[in-house]
Amino acid sequence: MNIVIRKGKLKDAPFVRKLAVESVVYGIPSTRKIPHEMVRELTAKSLSTLEVDMYRPDFALIVAEDTDIKRPVGYLMLDLNQVEGSTGEKQSLIHDLAVEKAYWGKFVVDRLMAEAENITRSKGLPYIVGEISADNKRPLIYSTTRLGYTVERHQIVKVLEP
Fold first, then answer.
1. Where are the beta strands (DSSP E) in 24-100?
2. Structural domain range at position 106
3. Is residue 162 part of a domain?
4. pLDDT tens-digit profile of 16-68?
């Protein structure tokens, strides 16, 4: 295994779509009762403009490629035009991040996040943020204990009966 982090290319779009659709269910909070298949369909639809988005100056697609097998194994989508709601400060937002399960625990996320941080710094943005479902404990713990991130906000929700 030899992982290289690189800028996403148009040829990566089918891989990104496939992995995004497969992995989106990991981020669904347990309070949400929407069927997983519906979320997958919505995710696929939301990525219909991915090839166009890749040309936007405020968007970055970062890909982790295993050069031994000559194919991508993970990606990170970064929105470089975010503004923090309460302070008005500019920041980048990790829009989506996924790594094939076979590569979990192999520091692929570390490398994708490091590159996202480098891109954020290069744009003069002082913050990089991401959202993690409260039920998705693995990335929450990993990002705060290994990658140096801090929990800044909590979102509360109440399921209302009809």
1. 59-66, 71-83, 90-99
2. 3-145
3. no
4. 999 999 999 998 998 999 999 999 999 999 999 999 999 999 999 999 999 99
Closest CA to 113 of 97, 133, 131, 135: 97
Whole-angstrom distance, CA of residue 137 vs CA of residue 140: 5
State the helix-helix crossing angle for 108-122 and 137-145, rounded to 10 degrees.
Answer: 60
Residue-level pLDDT at 155:
86
**What DSSP state is assigned to residue 126?**
S
Sign of CA dihedral 76, 80, 81, 85: positive
Task: Report pLDDT digits (tens) over 60-84.
Answer: 999 999 999 999 999 999 999 999 9
Read off the CATH number of the domain in which 92 is found. Answer: 3.40.630.30
